[in-house]
């Protein structure tokens, strides 16, 4: 493609991922295609094909996660811009299992525009079942080696984009079955050594346990510590164990040779949400129902003023075809 923001990206991904069931990768060459650029392209392609680029070097941590059958979740919501307030938000959960080969799967749902809570984390059906994100990710967990037909003993849930005023609501609506629910919020400070943790003085001891961690080493003046707040902890992770886990999970991104400012499950959830949103916004991506299409100004001539958000009904998302949904299609 000519640029990374090319208008044909969403339509092309829809043709490949939704209609044909073919995993694909687009390239927007830079003026100078240096070694770092080519390396990142190869890493992403290999990850989409099911390859493994990096593993956690902390064998003790990996062993502990496997022995305890620990499922790590990253949950994020992608909202539209101010001019797209009538377009559904995209909620994504990513299940990560760290064994000899890290496995990551995404579950995606649409929900009402700008809704802060994940509406489909749990979704009871008429027959008493559950069609929500959490249930789908549990099914993925069971498919991985050593976990077949076995539920996880421990679940760690990372949630991004939550303000302090929403802590109680998150605990009530999203963490009902989660064992630990850290929240991240970027903040900037002067450069510090990679792996620096601050859990005193500048944190609020009267609330939940929280800490700042800077896992990566940035260019001078660009280090960006991330704030984590533990809303609920039933698996008795010590503060040091939680800090070590967060630091380690910042090293295991399959598509980058550099460290992340947040844990990998959160980054993957954000990417998956953005990816599905681009596919959804492509022409004819949604079900061809007049009542559905009338809510999408990009798909129909109707004006934004014609959209009735009070009676908004969330349309179904395009469904990824074949084995695409079982891969890291969001890389």
From TrEMBL:
Q: Which SUPFAM superfamilies match?
A: Ribonuclease H-like
State the Gene3D superfamilies in the record.
Answer: 3.40.50.2300, Ribonuclease H-like superfamily/Ribonuclease H
| Species of provenance | Papaver atlanticum
Q: Which residues form the Piwi domain?
A: 1-281
| Gene Ontology molecular function terms on file | nucleic acid binding
**Where in this chain does the entry annotate a coiled-coil region?**
none
- Region Disordered, annotated ranges: 169-197
Q: Which Pfam families match?
A: Piwi
Q: What is this protein called?
A: Piwi domain-containing protein
- Sequence ranges of Basic and acidic residues compositional bias: 174-192
Listed InterPro entries: Piwi, RNaseH-like_sf, RNaseH_sf
**Origin superkingdom:** Eukaryota
């Amino acid at each position: 493609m000519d640029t990374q923001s090319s208008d044909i990206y969403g339509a092309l991904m829809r043709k490949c991922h939704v209609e044909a069931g073919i995993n694909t990768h687009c390239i927007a060459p830079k003026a100078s295609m240096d070694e770092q650029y080519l390396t990142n392209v190869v890493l992403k392609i290999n990850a989409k094909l099911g390859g493994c680029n990096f593993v956690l070097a902390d064998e003790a941590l990996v062993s502990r996660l496997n022995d305890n059958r620990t499922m790590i979740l990253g949950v994020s919501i992608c909202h539209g811009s101010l001019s797209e307030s009538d377009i559904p938000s995209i909620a994504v959960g990513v299940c990560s299992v760290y064994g000899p080969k890290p496995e990551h799967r995404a579950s995606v749902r649409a929900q009402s525009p700008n809704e802060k809570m994940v509406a489909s984390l749990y979704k009871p059906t008429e027959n008493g079942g559950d069609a929500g994100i959490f249930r789908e990710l549990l099914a993925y967990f069971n498919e991985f080696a050593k976990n077949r037909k076995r539920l996880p003993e421990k679940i760690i849930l990372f949630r991004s984009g939550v303000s302090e005023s929403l802590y109680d609501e998150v605990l009530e609506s999203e963490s009902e079955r989660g064992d630990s629910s850290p929240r991240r919020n970027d903040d900037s400070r002067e450069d510090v050594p990679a792996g620096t943790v601050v859990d005193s003085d500048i944190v609020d001891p009267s609330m939940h346990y929280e800490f700042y961690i800077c896992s990566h080493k940035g260019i001078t003046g660009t280090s960006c510590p991330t704030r984590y707040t533990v809303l609920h902890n039933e698996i008795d992770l010590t503060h040091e164990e939680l800090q070590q886990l967060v630091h380690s999970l910042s090293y295991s991104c399959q598509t980058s040779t550099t460290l992340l400012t947040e844990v990998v499950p959160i980054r993957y959830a954000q990417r998956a949400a953005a990816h599905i949103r681009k596919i959804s916004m492509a022409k004819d991506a949604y079900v061809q129902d007049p009542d559905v299409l009338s809510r999408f100004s990009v798909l129909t001539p109707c004006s934004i003023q014609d959209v009735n958000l009070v009676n908004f009904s969330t349309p179904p998302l395009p469904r990824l075809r074949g084995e695409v949904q079982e891969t890291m299609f969001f890389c």
